[in-house]
Amino acid sequence: MRVAILGTGYVGLTTGVCLAYLGHKVVCMDPVQSKIESLRAGRLPIFEPGLAELMEEASGNLAFTTDYREAVPGAEVIFIAVGTPPQPDGSPDLRYLRAASEGIGEHLDGPFAVVVNKSTVPIGSGNWVEALIRTSYEKHHSERADDKFAVASNPEFLREGTALSDTLYADRIVVGSDNPRVLEILYTLYRPLIDQNFAPPPFLPRPAECAAVPMVSSDLASAELIKYAANAFLALKISFINEIGNLAERVGADVQEVARGIGLDSRIGPRFLQAGLGWGGSCFGKDTSALVSTAAEYGLSMPIVNAAREVNNRQRVRVVEKLLAELRILKGRTISLLGLAFKPDTDDLRDAPSIDIAKKLAQHGAIVQAHDPVAMERFKAEFAELQVELKERPELLFERADAVILVTEWKTYRDLDWAGLKNSMRTPLVVDGRSFLDRAGLEAAGYRLVTIP
């Protein structure tokens, strides 16, 4: 099938590359010329394991452009995968969604196209997008847009660092539409994933348990709410175990044992029960904020979701509180951050705990230095104003440091020669923000290890 992808961020690029790998003819469109030039040259604007290799495999079915005229005309399915960043009041900024919708309406020329909202959008946005496309189409074509297109919701459930696996071997595919023609077209588009009858990439084998992927169909509003509800629930789960962890610390319990004990309950499950610095990234914070904002428009409050956000923000403050309890004074102290990205296997710094921690340490007069295996170039570009000294090798963070904070659980940090690095520190204090390091090994080497919570 002929597919257009509007937006080449994590969602758009991953979706486009995977659909091209499955055999569809895909054109990815983005207005940023430098990004498109890089993609044409085979250079990715993001770090995602395996994406470069899969893009090379799919190159025969994949094209990149900055021009709607090269993407939209003739496309059978058009994905909108543009950013919807939060505004100060928590509601999403829909300017890019509006621009994409109007661009589709202006250049739509096939017999029928399915316009798919892949972006996380407020509930009811499908109707708004349809109205924008219809108005733009009728303005530029001087005819009614009846039966020229239909809008569907198809929310993404990607995790950065495992985006390819989450796309090719998804838990489910959610499609929101009441139009049988739309459902048939999207079933055809996704059939290789639904049936799992495609040849898996050699570097990403199919999981043994993935024999088929269910396609869940619903109305537009329900599909839009499914995305928000899923992310809010996962955020709640993380904040819940962090709240339990804070209590466990006071009463002398081990939160990891508590998490294991409740996670073995099949009704709860073990995933997203890792106590620590909390969640970050582009989804949980933005989507919980948008959910609260949407509820307020309808006169509803979301106290549980609000509480999850408050607990998460509090975890970042607790790092500084722990350091103050151990060191008493932070002014003039050298504090090192192991990790900048909000999670391993990505270079994404959106809502990363490292940023808030670095700011709070600087406010206390600390000298902050940091390392990350892949996110340092992005950090230089996006947070040049922060006075953080970046080190090329993680071992350099230990030299005359008063404390080292494990912020991102990169495997390479657990494999450091911790025993050999201890004597280069001024104070052998380690704050493990992810309960990730070998406590027994570090304590045997002479470190003082503190965890969050």
Terminal CA distance: 50 Å
Identify the CATH homologous superfamily of the largest domain: NAD(P)-binding Rossmann-like Domain
**Spatial strand order of the main sheet:** 3-2-1-4-5-6
Q: Can you identify the CATH class of the largest domain?
A: Alpha Beta
Low-confidence stretches: none
Do you know the CATH topology of the largest domain?
A: Rossmann fold
The chain-level mean pLDDT equals 96
The description of the largest β-sheet is: 6 strands, parallel
The DSSP helix count reads 16
- As an assembly, this protein is single chain
Number of separate domains: 3
Describe the global form. elongated
Protein structure class: alpha/beta
Radius of gyration over C-alpha positions, nearest whole angstrom: 24 Å
The secondary-structure element order is EHEHHEEHEHEHEHEHHHHEHEHEEHHEHE
Short summary:
The protein is α/β, with parallel strands linked by helices.
Topology:
Blueprint (H helix, E strand, L loop, with lengths): L1 E5 L3 H12 L3 E5 L3 H8 L10 H7 L4 E4 L11 E4 L14 H13 L5 E5 L7 H17 L7 E5 L9 H6 L4 E4 L3 H16 L19 E4 L1 H32 L3 H9 L20 H14 L5 H25 L6 E5 L14 H11 L3 E5 L4 H7 L5 E3 L12 E4 L4 H4 L3 H4 L7 E4 L6 H6 L3 E4 L2
Parallel strand pairs: 1-2, 1-4, 2-3, 4-5, 5-6, 7-8, 9-10, 9-12, 10-11, 12-13, 13-14
Descriptive report:
With 453 residues, the protein is an alpha/beta fold. The protein folds into three domains: 2-217, Rossmann fold, CATH 3.40.50; 228-309, N-(1-d-carboxylethyl)-l-norvaline Dehydrogenase, domain 2, CATH 1.10.1040; 312-451, NAD(P)-binding Rossmann-like Domain (Rossmann fold, 3-Layer(aba) Sandwich), CATH 3.40.50. The protein has helices at 10-21, 33-40, 51-57, 95-107, 125-141, 163-168, 180-195, 220-251, 255-263, 284-297, 303-327, 353-363, 376-382, 411-414, 418-421, 439-444, and strands at residues 2-6, 25-29, 62-65, 77-80, 113-117, 149-153, 173-176, 215-218, 334-338, 367-371, 388-390, 403-406, 429-432, 448-451. The protein has a six-stranded parallel sheet, sandwiched between helices. The chain is elongated. The relative contact order is 0.09.
